[in-house]
Every structure is written in C-alpha cells, then in structure tokens.
Amino acid sequence: MANFAIDAAPSMTYDAIVIGSGISGGWAAKELTGKGLKTLVLERGRDVKHVTDYPTANLNPWEFEHRGQVPLAIKEQYGNIRSFMREETLHWAIKPDEQPFVEEQPFTWTRGYHVGGKSLLWARQTQRLSDFDFDGPARDGFAVDWPIRYADIAHWYSYVEKFAGISGNKDGLPHLPDGEFLPPIELNCVESHLQGVIAQNYKDRQLIQGRCAHITKPQPVHTAQGRAQCQHRNLCVRGCPFGGYFSSNASTLPWAERTENMTLRPHSVVHSIIYDDKKGRATGVRVVDANTMQMMEFFARIIFVNGSALNSNQILLNSISSRFPNGLGNDSGLLGKYIAWHNYRGKISAQYDGFADKTTDGKNPSNGYIPRFRNVYKQETSGPASRFMRGYATGVGGGRGFAQNREGMGLALKEQLLHPKLGPWNISGWMMGETIPIEANHVRLDPTLTDKYGIPQLITSAKWTENDDKMVDDYIEQMTEMFTLAGFKNINAVDTHANPGSDIHEMGGVRMGKDPKTSLLNKWNQLHHCKNVFVTDGACMTSTATQNPSLTYMALTARAADYAVKELKKKNL
Ligand SMILES: Cc1cc2nc3c(=O)[nH]c(=O)nc-3n(C[C@H](O)[C@H](O)[C@H](O)COP(=O)(O)OP(=O)(O)OC[C@H]3O[C@@H](n4cnc5c(N)ncnc54)[C@H](O)[C@@H]3O)c2cc1C
Ligand code: SF4
Question: Which SUPFAM superfamilies is this protein grouped with (predicted)?
C-alpha cells in the first residue's frame, strides 16, 4: 500500500462518491447531485456519450463490414466470453484479461464496463415487487426477513417510473402492483390469442402486456431530458439515439451533469473502500487509474456502492482494515454469501398455423408477460406446486419471419429474394424463476490470484438446487399445457441447463435484513456497521422474487439517497 496518495489534494475530496455509473449508479448520481452534493462518480470503463458514442445505431445491415458477423480472429481475442459477439454490439464486449475470475462452479457473468454499464444492454422489462415477494422469506422460511415491505418502496417506484418512463397496462393484479404507466406496447395477434386462451382456461393466470422502460408517449419530464418517443426500431442494444428507452446515458447521468455537481471519472477501477478506525467510518475509496495504473485516493462523507452485484461484493470483501479484517461491515461473516439469481433454464417455442392474413406492423421492442402463478397466496401443500418453493414468471413473444427460398437461378431466384413469402407465426416463452438464496452459494476472494489492477480475483461458487430442477420441470409441463390449449404446433420445451448467472440478474451477498447478525444492510441500504456506506444494487437483495430486478434497484437507490442526504444534514453521517 506504499503508493497510496495519503495526502490527497482537496480537489479529491467530495461530498459523495458513487461507485459505478450503470442503472443504480446513475440514479445515485442523479439524486445526490440533485440534492446539492458534490458527487464523484467512479466508473471503471470508458466514457460513452449519449448519441455520439453509439457507432452502429443507424447502420443498415449492408453497411457492416462483415455483414454482422465477428471475424474469427477477433472472436479469439475474447476467448470464452460470448456476450455481445455481434458486429453491431462488439463495442460493448469485454476481454477476459479485464477481470478474470475463478469459477469454482460454472457461473456465467455478463458485464458491461463502460459509462452507463448494463443500462445500455438490458432488455428494459420493469415490474414492481409486491408484498408476496417481500413477505416471501419470512412466510416460507428461507433467507432472512426483508426489513421493508411494499409500502416502504411504493412511493419510490412511482418516483423512478415517472422519470424513467415505463410503459404498461394497469392490470390490477395484487401480486404485480400497477405503476405510473405510459401507454402499453400492444401485444400482437398471436400473443393476444394466447392471452385469451389463458383467460378462458385458468383462474390463477394472466398474460399481460410487458411493462418496459420505453417512452410510448413522452411527458414533459422526458422531453426535458432530451428524450423522444420510441420509434419501434428494436435496435435498442446498439444504443438509442432517440433516448426511446431508459439508460443512464440518456437520462440520469446528463440530468446529474446539468446540476454541475457531478464529476464523472471513467477509467477508474475501484480497488477498495478506505475505513478510518479512529473516525469509525469510511473516508473514501482507493482507485486504480486504468490508463496509468496509478493508485489514487478520493474522499467523501458518504459512499454509494453500485458496481453491480458481484463487483460490489468484491469491493467490500477487498476493503480490509484492522476493524474489518474480513471485509467492510462483515461482522456477521455473511458478506459474499446467499448469492442468488434467476432461473431462466426453461424455454419453449412453437408455431401457429392461424392468422395467415396478419403480419406485424413495425418492430416490437417488448413482449408479453405471465406473472408468477405458483405458490403466490400460500405455499401449496398438495398438487404440482407443492414439489418446490416459490415460482416463476414467463416472458412470451410471438413474431412472423420470412420463409425464404434461396434455391434456383437467374430471374426466378431474384424474384424470390425480392419478394420473400411470410412464414408461419412463431411463439416462444422463457422462464424467470425465483432461486432460493442459500449460504453455500457464495463469492469470495482468491487468496493468491489478482487481476491486472492488483485486485484479488473473485471466486464464484454457486450451484442449482433441487428446488430449481423441480421448478423447471413444472415450467415445462405448464407451458406445454398452455401452448397446447392455444393450438400451437411443433412445441419444443427444453431445460437448457444453462449455468447459474446466465439470466444476468445476479443478486445478494450484501443482503438487507433487520438483524446485524444475519444481514449486512439495514432497511435504508446502509451497512449496519459502517453507516456512511450504502449498497443499492443487486447485492442488497434479500431474495430474488421473479420480477426483472432493475426497477427495484432504481427505487431503492433513490430512497436510500434521500435518506442519506437527510442524515447528512442532521450530521448523523
Ligand atoms: C442482455 C441483458 C438483458 C437484461 N434485461 C433486463 C431486463 O429486461 N430487466 C431488468 O430489470 N434487468 C435486465 N438486465 C439486467 C440489468 O442490466 C442489471 O440488473 C442492471 O444493469 C444492474 O444495475 P447496476 O447498477 O447494479 O449495474 P450495471 O448497470 O452493470 O452498472 C455497474 C457499473 O459499475 C461499473 N463498475 C463495476 N465495478 C467497478 C469498479 N470496481 N470500479 C468502478 N466501476 C465499476 C461497471 O463498469 C458498470 O458501469 C439485463 C442485462 C442484460 C445484459
Ligand atoms: S425500439 Fe425504441 S428504444 Fe429501441 S432503439 Fe428503437 S426507438 Fe430506441
């Protein structure tokens, strides 16, 4: 630790530091700067400016040098990392030497290391958790009781939804609370058909319009952000020049920048948080400048940890002091434990012979959604749902592709290529199951291996359980039944046996709870034992629910930032 800048310049001292500029870090930046705090946002990756840094956003298929493919020689540089290996998205992919990690058990860890993080990569589905989720661990006897309930967060869901722009339908479902919705993105005919069949045949199931972070009818707060209505191009993953969907880059970060209270520092890999034994609080962070490899220190009164779930675990585990020899705030010894994720192993696809006269109008950046219907009101004690705890939601999407005949020669072939015939309707479903957090599923630091920044490598040790296997079986049975009732053909339902983490919804390790002996964070996302450090990304999740989680990270972040600033003003931090 000899090269730390112990006597940091005053310019290195801020009111607040935010680690990470992704979905949750962007919200922390917006809220803290908006409340007048000089805030340093530390981001390990490069800068990505909204619009100008989306190099493929407006390219036509024929304008890609390799027609969309990534040449083998370039692929080889990425080794086993297969995320975003398309020509349109290669600029988002990270190379293995950026952050090697040790898979004690196979784990797929998808990362987005640039300003905006995975807010530029996500599928934008956004549902609220309900009390059936917050009550879950206490009711069903797993993990620990959440320290909050729906009433604690409902206001903050509304707060972030209005700003981000969430489209959806008010469905009136107790287990999927309605939000502040812009008009929903319509289901297409085959999705509507399945919706009707489910409504006719099941009392406990509904197919609803996906709730997603797309602006379908801009409100003044969206135009003030410089964002416009979604154009249904469905090229979102390239970056959207219209700001049609919510990303940190289009929304929270430029808003924070306008306050003139934000300093955004890309290429800043946070190594650890500095804890001062005498002051009894965290005083700042250690950062490796990715360009110079120089270790630097930055100081602040409060620190928000938003590196995405596993990185936040890694940073806290690496934040060692004489007071906290096992990681910051880790008196309970539970830091890094109870890692959970979503179970996306079940997949189903089929075709439909009907609606031959119909096609889609434009491209649909959303999909249908069947909320959880297993073990919702109670844990079943008989019947199929009694075989496992909790349940699953499912995404459902239909579309119609071309059945192009590329055989033949000359004029006939030209004709076929110019006027391809539409194929049948296809429909698919993908499972989103709740996994039960268990102590054995954990991350820890490797005692000897470090990355190129000198940071100990993360070991991932997390496996599927029998509960997950049984839930996949039930998903396959139930979805096959629903698809059969809908008259779909060529039904193919499979268990992909994908690695844990493949869902990109990793959570836990720094869970919230009521008791410092069994949790790391209190109800305000504040470390029980280091009150000026807040963790508001997926690491804080006590249980996973089945909903796409990022909306909850946003709401928890805005809520915690509000509390932190009030506490700061009261001089409690
Ligand atoms: C293809 C895809 C589809 C998805 N679809 C959905 C969906 O439909 N709905 C949903 O809710 N979620 C979805 N997700 C997940 C969603 O993207 C994440 O839940 C969300 O981005 C997490 O927010 P975050 O702030 O925790 O992390 P991120 O958005 O990943 O941001 C973390 C930031 O921290 C930075 N960082 C990490 N470590 C350090 C460090 N040591 N020092 C400095 N900076 C650091 C990273 O570079 C990054 O910019 C999807 C993800 C992907 C990839
Ligand atoms: S579908 Fe909407 S949000 Fe996505 S790229 Fe097109 S305009 Fe942007």
Answer: FAD-linked reductases, C-terminal domain, FAD/NAD(P)-binding domain
Alpha helices in 351-426 (DSSP H): 410-418
Is there a contact between 240 and 250 (Cβ–Cβ < 8 Å)? yes
Residue with tokens 């090229």: 235
Residues within a 6 A CB radius of ligand 1: 19-25, 42-45, 110, 112-113, 117-119, 121-125, 268-270, 306-308, 311, 315, 504-505, 537-538, 548-550, 553
With beta carbons less than 8 A apart as the criterion, state whether 303 and 283 touch.
no
Amino acid at 515: D
- Ligand 1 center from residue 126 Cα (angstroms): 14
Ligand 2 touching residue 234 (CB < 6 A): yes
Q: Cβ(22)–Cβ(117) under 8 Å? A: yes
* Cβ proximity of 372 and 395 under 8 Å: no
Q: Are strands 346-352 and 489-495 parallel, antiparallel or unpaired?
A: antiparallel
0.85 exceeded by pTM: yes
String of DSSP letters for 35-69: TT--EEEE-SSB---TTTT-TTTT--GGGSTTTTP
Share of the chain above pLDDT 90, in %: 91
- Please answer whether residues 283 and 299 qualify as being in contact, where contact means their C-beta atoms are separated by less than 8 angstroms: yes
Asked whether 304 and 19 are in contact (CB, 8 A), the reply is: yes
Q: What tens digit of pLDDT does each residue of 522-563 get? A: 999 999 999 999 999 999 999 999 999 999 999 999 999 999
Please give the distance of CA 496 from its chain centroid, rounded to a whole number.
21
The three-point CA angle 138-143-148 to 5° equals 55
Contact criterion met (CB below 8 Å) for 28 and 18: yes
202 CA to middle of ligand 1, Å?
Answer: 36
CB 422 within 8 Å of CB 333: no
**What ligand is nearest to the CA atom of residue 430?**
1
Query: Which ligand is closest to the CA of 41, given by its number?
Result: 1
Dig out the tokens for 201 from the structure: 């045949």
Ligand in nearest proximity to the CA of 240: 2
List, in order, residues 6 or more apart from 439 with CB less than 8 Å away: 334, 337, 338
Helix, strand, coil percentages for the chain (3-state, nearest 5): 25, 25, 50
Cα 233–Cα 238–Cα 244 angle in degrees, nearest 5: 50
pLDDT at 5 (0 to 100)? 41
> What six digits make up the tokens of 536?
């508001």
The string of pLDDT tens digits covering residues 320-349 is 999 999 999 999 999 999 999 999 999 999
Tell the residue number behind the tokens 């981001």, with chain if given.
43
